[in-house]
Amino acid sequence: MDTPVRNEPLPAAGAFFESFDGWAQLLKAHALGATDGAGAEPLPADDAGAAEALPSGEPEAAEALPWRPGRRSAMALLHVVDDGRDSGETIRLRDDMLVIGRVTGGVKIPHDAFLDRHHARLDRLPGGGWLLTDLGSTDGTWVRVMTAKLRPGTYLQIGGTRLVFRRGDDGAAAFAPVSHGAAADSAPSFPCPPTPFLLGRADAQQVHADPGLPTLLLDDPFVSPVHAEVVAGRSAWRIVNRGLNGLWVRIEAPVRLDAVAQFQCGDQRFVLEPLTADS
């Protein structure tokens, strides 16, 4: 496996973690129809005539498609996000398995006290995609999602606040605060009102609250004014993200990742980019 290499994002790309070497920048510029973008060189003076416009009425020939090797499957990329940034190190996943941990593994982060010795593992699936497995870690492995089912014992992270969903025999539901390591806090639980209801930041509710929906208020600057909505489903409640910092769920079983996905181990966040031949 390659040593992690730091890649700087292409300024004009505007896409998360998009980085290219010089040749790839030039190929992308051609693919986008750019003639004076980054990496493009001016024509020499002797070739100035080659840049003259075609005579009126003659159609312009379409540019060739960028060529790339295609006899092997494309390699996925794992981005190790720098603290407080949207950039970081990029690792090409050439092997079929990668372990993330504090002491051993393909990605080692020894200074993260919340990372276990062997924390999580990524396995390449035969039909494409990757399988993310938590290796019994204390702090858990968390995946960013748009929506999730709420079952008793489901752990969530909203902003910087971690909660566990509880439901008693009488059907009463509540969110209980938890700390790192999934230990229950001494802070009181938040009883859930009837669905649907919202979760949002306490100091912003007078301006942003929906008067038609009750709201559980969280004292957390990383929580959006309206961060999530809880709705009733056929078999279980569901929570839907509506916040800037996303909705994170602690995985209880291996999770298949077929598209770009964000996950967190300890205090380290990652972005998995499972490339395809068309990427």
Write the topology of this structure:
Elements: E1 5-7, H1 22-31, E2 76-81, E3 88-93, E4 97-101, E5 107-108, E6 120-124, E7 130-134, E8 141-145, E9 147-150, E10 155-158, E11 161-167, E12 173-178, E13 190-191, E14 197-201, H2 205-208, E15 215-218, E16 228-232, E17 237-241, E18 247-250, E19 255-257, E20 261-265, E21 268-273
Parallel strand pairs: 4-5, 14-15
Antiparallel strand pairs: 1-3, 2-3, 2-21, 4-6, 6-7, 7-19, 8-18, 8-20, 9-17, 10-11, 10-18, 11-12, 12-13, 14-16, 16-17, 20-21
Structure in words:
The structure is a single chain. With 279 residues, the protein is mainly beta. Among the domains are: 76-140 and 251-274, Tumour Suppressor Smad4; 145-246, no CATH class. Helices cover 5% and strands 35% of the residues. It is built from two helices and 21 strands. The protein has an eleven-stranded antiparallel β-sheet, with no helix packed on it. Strands 5-4-6-7-19 form a five-stranded mixed β-sheet, with no helix packed on it. Strands 9-17-16-14-15 form a five-stranded mixed β-sheet, with no helix packed on it. A hairpin with a 4-residue loop joins strand 16 (228-232) and strand 17. The longest helix has 10 residues, at 22-31. The radius of gyration is 24 Å and the shape is globular. Mean pLDDT is 80; it is low at 1-27 and 34-51.
